[in-house]
Amino acid sequence: MTPNPHPSSQARALPVRSPFMTAVLAALLLGSTIALSACSSPGALDAQATTSRRVASQLPTDALLLGEQHDAVEHQVIEREAVEALAQRGRLAALALEMAEEGNTTAHLHADATEVQVRTALSWNDKAWPWAAYGPVVMAAVRAGAPVIGANLQRAHMKDAMADVSLDAQLAEPARLAQQDAVRDGHCRLLPESQIVPMTRIQIARDRAMAQTVVKARVPGKTVLLVIGAGHGNKLLGVPQHLPTDVAIKAVRLQAGPGDNAAGAFDAVWLTPALPEKDYCADVKAPPPRSAG
């Protein structure tokens, strides 16, 4: 079974999971804040000021992890505002993204680079991650003169990760079992049991790759902003588990609608309006239509 890096619709549906998942998995828990409107409206200005205050409340830190629900458009707006808030304080070391693979960066581009140049530099996959949603986040960092860095595991390395038994030891057993259960849920509990351990290894490898990106991008006195799915930001299971102890981090969950914050999973939860309920597994589980006659 070859992993598919496109975020599955079912993974997007589960607010407690990390949805970059048909090749990967899902993840867990809790989230973030702000309601927004058009950029020039008073409401939008108030929302941006709120984001700025909330970002300031997490500083100083070497890395600020924003864990989103991928289909919540308010979350990408907050991420752009967080980029701008850090840049205005002169604290933005880099913007690192789950949405682009390791080895891709805009560091060689000027602040006035075009969107085409930026997308090319990041090898952007618009089918997996719509540029319409993430482009404003990326371009805010470029315009601020900060590098945008791909943080995700390269697709070419996923097969190797599936067979890498050393990844099993990267998490304590309770966390590893929780990740395995997230894989089951993220695939609508249709994935063969024989694939659970290999797919969990991919999740662990992705978290480790993103952690390594943060370490490489760190700048004293500044903050690396890492934009990821909420499950990857979970301090008990995700990227924080793979960071050295000398890297100070704050993990924030952006959460659409009410939810529980498990103790120690995130440093803060910022709430946004709930999304309409949708069963993202319905199409996967539905039987194929019968042919006529």
Describe this structure in words.
- By secondary structure, the chain is of the alpha/beta class.
- It has one domain: Rossmann fold (3-Layer(aba) Sandwich), CATH 3.40.50.
- It has ten helices and six strands.
- A six-stranded parallel β-sheet has the order 3-2-4-1-5-6.
- The longest helix has 22 residues, at 196-217.
- The chain is globular, with a radius of gyration of 18 Å.
- The protein starts with 8 loop residues before the first helix and ends in an 8-residue tail after the last helix.
- The relative contact order is 0.24.
- The model is unreliable at 1-40 (pLDDT under 50).
The CATH class assignment is: Alpha Beta
Q: Beta fraction of the residues?
A: 5-15%
The residue ranges in which pLDDT falls below 50 over 5 or more consecutive positions are 1-40
CA-atom Rg in angstroms: 18 Å
Instruction: Specify the CATH architecture.
Output: 3-Layer(aba) Sandwich
> What is the residue-mean pLDDT, rounded to a whole number?
85
Helicity range: 25-40%
Largest sheet: 6 strands, parallel
Number of helices: 10
Q: What is the ordering of alpha helices and beta strands?
A: HHEHEHHEHHHEHEEH
Which structural class fits the helix and strand makeup? alpha/beta
Strand order of the largest sheet: 3-2-4-1-5-6
How many distinct domains? Answer: 1
Shape: globular
N/C terminus separation? 34 Å
Q: Please identify the oligomeric state.
A: single chain
The CATH topology assignment is Rossmann fold
Q: Tell how many strands the DSSP assignment holds.
A: 6
